[in-house]
């Protein structure tokens, strides 16, 4: 099997690949919510339980990517003549998966290594989080040709993403940072918002590329 084969539509849509990513992301999501549990408890006790949806950023992103893979698994078990389901719920799930997985994949790695640059010690968990979050960003891009989302889904998810940024840095429910970055909160907030814009643009460009490729396949 050539290297190019691993990036082919046939390989990425194979049940082996889909089930592998489904379980990897599902287990990663569970681990992620456990990772955020202390902050979620702190937020509910000291602020408001209404803020909880805005606390666990990365595991929520991987949860939606798990859902996107779930839709592809359903497609894989449908008759070959049947068209993939592409309702508005699926579109929002996919757009959420792409935008937030790319955003928080890059964000988490950036924060870890910015902290290290400023003097934080590097441990095995930092390496694990670096690899897993880079994987989040990569897998969001990998399935470009198999998504079904359109512009309206991007707009809905973009609105949530910027609302999440506002809640994070306007109300202080941003993910707990390395101690060395606490005095750089303004810069972190600006970087996060800029990354949101980039992630939305990436999702839009991916949609346009997908539509162009689909026309060529007709």
Number of separate strands: 0
How many alpha or pi helices? 8
> Which bin fits the share of residues in helices?
over 70%
Distance between the termini: 27 Å
Give a written overview of the molecule.
With 218 residues, this protein is mainly α. The chain has one domain (3-217). It is built from 8 helices and no strands. Helix 4 crosses helix 5 (88-117), helix 5 crosses helix 7 and helix 7 (151-170) runs antiparallel to helix 8 (185-217). The model has no long low-confidence stretch (mean pLDDT 92). Keywords: Membrane, Transmembrane, Transmembrane helix. It comes from Paenibacillus foliorum.
List the helices and strands and how they pair.
Layout lengths: L8 H4 L2 H21 L1 H10 L10 H21 L10 H30 L6 H19 L8 H20 L14 H33 L1
Summarize the model shown.
The chain is an all-alpha fold and 218 residues long.
Descriptive labels:
218 residues; mainly alpha; globular; 8 helices
